[in-house]
Automatic annotation (TrEMBL):
Pfam families: Gate. The keyword Transmembrane helix applies. This is Sporulation integral membrane protein YlbJ. The gene is ylbJ. The chain crosses the membrane at residues 9-27, 47-71, 83-101, 121-142, 213-234, 246-273, 293-314, 326-344, 373-396. It comes from the Bacteria. Coiled coil: none annotated. Residues 44-133 form the Nucleoside transporter/FeoB GTPase Gate domain. It comes from Metabacillus herbersteinensis. Keywords: Membrane, Transmembrane, Transmembrane helix. The keyword Zinc does not apply.
Length: 407
């Protein structure tokens, strides 16, 4: 039997098994589907849409090229990616996954970076945004705002070290970069020249650019929503058929060898598939806070197969390989877990001991305004933003479809 045939049979059995599990457990599947839909409807769509649209416009009008010229002396020698990677990295941290992958793919389609540079770039621009770390995980799940400082530090330091590690990816391959390879001193004049040339090359009218940005952004978010719902159902079915429990038993021995409570094995398995449910289960587990912080850091860094499937779908539209991204997620999980362990005492315990005296109002509330205001606003107005955006999408898409048929 050929390897291709074996792969076909495995995929067929896997999909058939999921279908049967959904048919046998319709109630649990419906609840999980609604949970995933709610997360996408209230949080993911309204929080990512502005970043996606603005990013598309910044690329179209040449602002990203302007930033790239200025950041080239830093990004090129440190991470071996063009200066435009600095923009992707910043937007990835601000908006969360999978924004880094989408912007990297967009730059590759614009031929502003090579495929090898794109593989390096996408590996360390996959970040969780600070609002999710502080608002959802630290405050929402752990009810511990100070823990958010530790999780954020471990997460972004792990991200940085992934970038430093992945700079060696493809070191033996011949470079085929469309951008500058040698160190140079950036100039504002050169940056403005690149901005102007990029805008001139894209001769679409401003209205067309804005419409395209809205359409492509919403299409990407619709795809992301489908993956969130699918993996919410899949994760729930694994728990219903007790497969998560059986895998947890096997993983518990490994965690014990590492000095981590075996009770965290099931939350870790769940987090490998979907980060929200995994972190929620981690916060409720019967274990020391240090062990919980290590597992939560790994889950945030690995980002779950749900997010990785979204990234794989985005990268499939280009020649960017997915394997380096997957390896980078494992590396970031290891790095972030180590940083959580190392920084727990000097960062978290010291901060917590100072809370009563130095931060009596800022931190002592159960749900601090600084960490939850944005999150609460999203859950309140998120559905309205989503509904209006989808309506605008249908109007623009409908008009263009009718226009193309008329022509």
């Amino acid at each position: 039997m050929s390897q291709s045939m074996l792969k076909t049979i495995i995929i067929a059995f896997f999909i058939s098994g999921i279908t049967i599990a959904i048919i046998v457990n319709p109630g649990e599947s419906l609840v999980a589907s609604k949970t995933g839909l709610t997360m996408w409807w209230e949080i993911v769509f309204p929080s990512l849409l502005p970043f996606f649209i603005v990013s598309e416009l910044l690329i179209g009008f040449g602002v990203v090229q302007f930033i790239g010229v200025l950041l080239e002396p830093f990004m090129r020698p440190v991470f071996r990616v063009p200066g435009v990677g600095g923009f992707v990295w910043a937007m990835g941290m601000a908006s969360g996954f999978p924004a880094g992958a989408k912007l990297t793919a967009r730059l590759r389609q614009e031929k502003q970076i090579s495929a090898l540079e794109a593989e390096r770039l996408v590996s360390f621009t996959n970040c969780s945004n600070p609002i999710f770390i502080f608002g959802a995980v630290a405050v929402g799940f752990f009810n511990n705002p100070a823990l958010g400082v530790l999780l954020a530090a471990a997460h972004y330091l792990g991200n940085l070290f992934v970038g430093l590690t992945m700079r060696f990816h493809g070191a033996h391959e011949k470079r085929h970069s469309p951008t500058r390879e040698r160190f140079y001193i950036p100039s504002i004049r050169t940056a403005f020249k690149e901005l102007h040339q990029t805008r001139i090359q894209d001769d679409r009218p401003i209205g067309k650019k804005i419409g395209d940005a809205v359409l492509t952004s919403i299409q990407s978010l619709l795809m992301i929503g489908g993956f969130i719902i699918l993996f919410s159902v899949f994760n729930k079915l694994l728990m219903v058929i007790h497969l998560t429990e059986y895998l947890g038993i096997a993983l518990g021995g490994l965690l014990t060898l590492l000095g981590i409570a075996s009770d965290l094995s099931v939350p870790l398995i769940s987090g490998i598939f979907e980060i929200t449910q995994g972190n929620n289960l981690t916060s409720d587990a019967n274990a020391d806070l240090l062990d919980k912080a290590i597992i939560a850091s790994f889950i945030l860094a690995f980002s779950g197969l749900s997010v990785q499937a979204q990234v794989a779908s985005i990268l499939a539209e280009t020649d960017i390989g997915f394997k380096p991204f997957f390896i980078a997620r494992i590396l970031q999980g290891i790095y972030s877990s180590i940083f959580a362990f190392v920084l727990f005492k000097p960062l978290y315990l010291n901060l917590e001991s100072q809370l009563p005296s130095e931060y009596p109002v800022f931190f002592m509330q159960q749900t601090p305004e600084w960490a939850t205001l944005y999150w609460n606003v999203l859950t309140e107005i998120g559905p309205i933003v989503t509904l209006i955006s989808l309506t605008v999408y249908l109007v623009i898409y409908g008009k263009r479809t009718l226009l193309s048929k008329t022509i």
